[in-house]
Design a protein that fits this description.
The complex is a heterodimer. Chain A is an alpha/beta fold. Helix content of chain A is 54%, strand content 9%. Chain A is globular. In chain A, 50% of the residues are buried. By secondary structure, chain B is an alpha/beta fold. Chain B has a 5-stranded mixed beta sheet. In chain B, strands 8-7-6-9-10 form a 5-stranded mixed beta sheet, sandwiched between helices. Chains A and B meet through α20 of A and α3 and β8 of B. Bound molecules: iron/sulfur cluster (SF4) (2 copies).
Chain lengths: 457, 269
């Protein structure tokens, strides 16, 4: 598909950046911060899977090759549609040959810019995303023809209104309650309306055939990710949490077909590692599940701190984690175009976002994941000023304590100002997990000893 | 069985008699070190200054002068733990838990008010951490809060503390932020509140912050008070009154972290 079009990846980055209207001088300051962080977070790890190199090179040229590819497609008549949430029916975008991107900001750099307009006590994800646009610092953002918002949290909702002053923004009306017939119908209508919006923008029709192919593509992406995650249930774990986070983050940026291929290749290597009993951390290393708000590039702070403390992250209950891929769009019962859309709408309503009330499926799911991935403890992650996830902690904590899984809540932003305290908290938590593992092991061997001597006599 | 036990203890004694275990606590204001084998052989404290690594090396030299023998393991803890090349590092919470357990086997709660952060820790009978709470990045509820107000009023910390004990009607300090509290304190003095009452108010305000943390994880007897602020009698009084508990004080509260680190080197977590 893309081969027929001319990709000018040979154009040097700076020429390209000027062409898309980046503030090149400030962008230089932003982008030069990335390599040293990437190096210290990722490249210092030992024994990484070989197939991760594709994702490494993607990030090493994050604002080069891929945004050029996107820009070229735009120039060739494909539209570019950006979003900020897991509630983004990307299938329509694929079906019209447009490019979907998730543009959530994970960098500290543009936050000061955003704070000129947004209140400071806004979640960093919202401020960072907004700052990237108003300061012309993100080449992906520059290509977007349409942005898709959604009525999730208050901070995002109101930010979209302001963002719409810079780029056309279409906000999906997501109901607050997910279980009621009224809500389902509302959401179905919203998804359908979005289809019309995409058709209007692209001037291309979403035929059933194209939609089925797009659903299949998005499902294959979810399955490839699920396959990678599945290998993390092994002990020793074949891949670090950081590396998986990187893959997850790129799922929202890369060309879907290529991403599926590369992710499956990685999964294959990981499966072989599991068969050989090969891991990145020692067998028996404390296993941590992270649950909470999403982490977008280059937000690697929590994983880095946990894994440098001698534990390993084995899964993320997050929108840059299981919430993104757990459910597939199931079209097996569909017999009309509306049925296809309804199947999509249903899938999205199953995302356990804390913006819903009630959201009782989420604590249940966290407990399930902790069991499946054999987590020794849970780190509950809250981006500062996110009231939704912060408040929902009480329920998740209760559910975990009921089954005896230790949990710690970490509330933080993108800055480095709390690095020392974060380290102390995380290290203590990991030491706690180590101590309890050691004492469990001791009591097991003691019991075994008693049993052995009992049967011996 | 008895034979087993004897061998075990002899080996333990042998091991502990010959090898030295060192714990170094690199705090934000002072660096502490403890040498341990079967018992504490030596300890030392010195100011951190600008370079925690250098201070760590100096304090290490200092204690090694007082105790000779092959070093088995050096375990570092405290804020500057990563800047020091030790065999192992542990967080200060884990270290204080272990150290408190060593001194007081019945300890179940540890309150540690340090220079820049405060921690409440629930521990088990082995000194293992069961749960903990820690102040967020602001300095309210830490030793820094008291130091800053004393400085703003131009009195020494010792004087500030002893004046607090003389207060009959402590002032109410409402600001949680050190910066705002400083101006609040100055305006209270300007309005004629005595320095005694202001000081008692400042100590009570720190105690209230600690209470909020304690309420999150609960408190169980015996409660050990460690860290630099434990040497401040006004702080002890304010805490005991606010929490309605009796505090157990180590002889040298500042050394508990280093002691715990050394013990973790010797016995594991
Ligand atoms: S956490 Fe909720 S609002 Fe945030 S990306 Fe996920 S679904 Fe969207
Ligand atoms: S992390 Fe919370 S506050 Fe931030 S965008 Fe997501 S739901 Fe909103």
């Amino acid at each position: 598909m893309t081969e027929t079009k001319k990709i000018r990846t040979d154009v040097d980055n700076e020429t390209f950046w000027r062409e898309v209207g980046l503030d090149v001088e400030r962008h230089d300051d932003l982008i030069k911060g990335l390599p040293p962080v990437f190096e210290s977070v990722f490249l210092t790890q030992k024994n990484r899977p070989e197939k991760i190199s594709y994702f490494d090179s993607f990030i090493q040229d994050l604002h080069g090759k891929r945004p050029k590819e996107v820009y070229d497609r735009k120039n060739n008549g494909d539209k570019v549609i950006g979003a900020f949430c897991a509630f983004f029916p990307e299938e329509f975008v694929h079906a019209t040959g447009a490019v979907p991107l998730v543009l959530c900001g994970g960098a500290e750099f543009p936050i000061a810019d955003a704070e000129k307009i947004l209140p400071r006590n806004t979640c960093p994800l919202i401020k960072s995303s907004f700052g990237f646009k108003i300061s012309n610092l993100c080449p992906y953002f520059q290509s977007a023809d349409l942005l898709v918002g959604e009525t999730t949290c208050g901070g995002k909702k109101k930010m979209y209104e302001l963002l719409g002053e810079y780029v056309p923004t279409h906000t999906l009306h997501l109901p607050h309650k997910k279980d009621e017939a009224l809500s389902r119908n509302l959401w179905f209508e919203e998804v359908k309306k979005f289809k019309g919006k995409v058709e209007e923008l692209t001037g291309r029709k979403v035929t059933d055939e194209k939609l089925l192919a797009a659903i299949d593509l998005a499902n294959r992406k979810r399955l490839a990710l699920a396959r990678v995650y599945n290998t993390r249930k092994a002990d020793p774990v074949p891949i670090s949490g950081k590396d998986v986070l990187l893959v997850m983050q790129l799922a929202l940026f890369d060309d879907a077909e290529r991403f599926v291929k590369k992710t499956n290749e990685l999964a294959e290597e990981l499966e072989a590692r599991v068969d050989r009993g090969e891991g990145v951390a020692a067998k028996g290393a404390p296993r941590v599940l992270i649950s909470g708000t999403p982490m977008t590039i280059p937000n690697w702070k929590l994983h880095d701190t946990i894994e440098k403390s001698g534990a390993v992250v084995v899964t993320e209950e997050s929108c840059t984690g299981t919430r993104y891929f757990t459910d597939l769009v199931d079209t097996s019962d569909a017999s009309s175009s509306d049925d296809l859309i309804r199947a999509m709408a249903e899938k999205y309503l199953h995302i356990n976002c804390a913006c819903f009330t009630p959201n009782n499926e989420r604590p249940v799911d966290v407990v399930r994941l902790a069991g499946e991935y054999k987590a020794d403890g849970v780190v509950y992650y809250v981006l500062q000023f996110c009231h939704e996830f912060n408040t929902e902690f009480a329920k998740v904590e209760r559910a975990l304590r009921a089954v005896g899984i230790p949990v710690i809540k970490i509330e933080t932003d993108y800055s480095d100002s709390d690095r020392g305290q974060l380290k102390t908290r995380i290290e203590t938590f990991v030491e706690m997990l180590k101590a309890s593992k050691a004492s469990k092991a001791a009591s097991v061997s003691k019991e075994a000893g008693i049993k052995a001597s009992a049967t011996g006599s | 069985m008895r034979i087993c036990l004897t061998i075990y203890t002899t080996e333990m004694i042998h091991r502990s008699m010959t090898k030295l275990f060192i714990g170094i606590d690199l705090g934000s204001t002072t660096v502490k070190a403890v040498v341990l084998n079967g018992q504490v052989l030596a300890s030392a404290i010195r100011p951190t200054g600008a370079n925690p690594r250098k201070a760590g090396e100096a304090v290490l030299e200092q204690i090694l002068e007082k105790s000779a023998g092959p070093i088995d393991k050096i375990v570092a803890t405290g804020y500057g733990r990563v800047s020091f090349s030790a065999d192992e590092i542990v967080s200060e919470i884990t270290a204080h838990a272990k150290g408190s357990n060593l001194l007081f086997p019945d300890a179940r709660t540890v309150i540690d008010i340090g220079g820049q952060d405060s921690k409440i820790t629930r521990i088990d009978d082995h000194g293992r951490v069961l749960d903990f709470a820690m102040n967020d990045r602001c300095a309210a509820g830490t030793g820094r809060f008291i130091e800053n107000t004393a400085k703003a009023l131009e009195v020494s910390l010792e004087e500030f503390s002893s004046k607090s004990l003389a207060s009959q009607t402590p002032a109410r300090i409402n600001s949680m932020c050190t910066v705002f509290a400083e101006s609040e304190v100055i305006s209270q003095i300007a309005q004629g509140t005595s320095i005694e009452d202001v000081s008692a108010g400042v100590h009570a305000s720190v105690a209230r912050r600690i209470k909020a943390m304690v309420e999150r994880i609960g408190v169980e007897d015996q409660v050990v008070f460690t860290g630099g602020a434990a040497k401040n009698p006004a702080m002890r009084k304010a805490l005991e009154e606010t929490l309605r508990v009796k505090l157990t004080l180590p002889k040298e509260p500042q050394l508990v972290g280093a002691l715990g680190a050394a013990a973790i080197g010797r016995d594991g977590y």
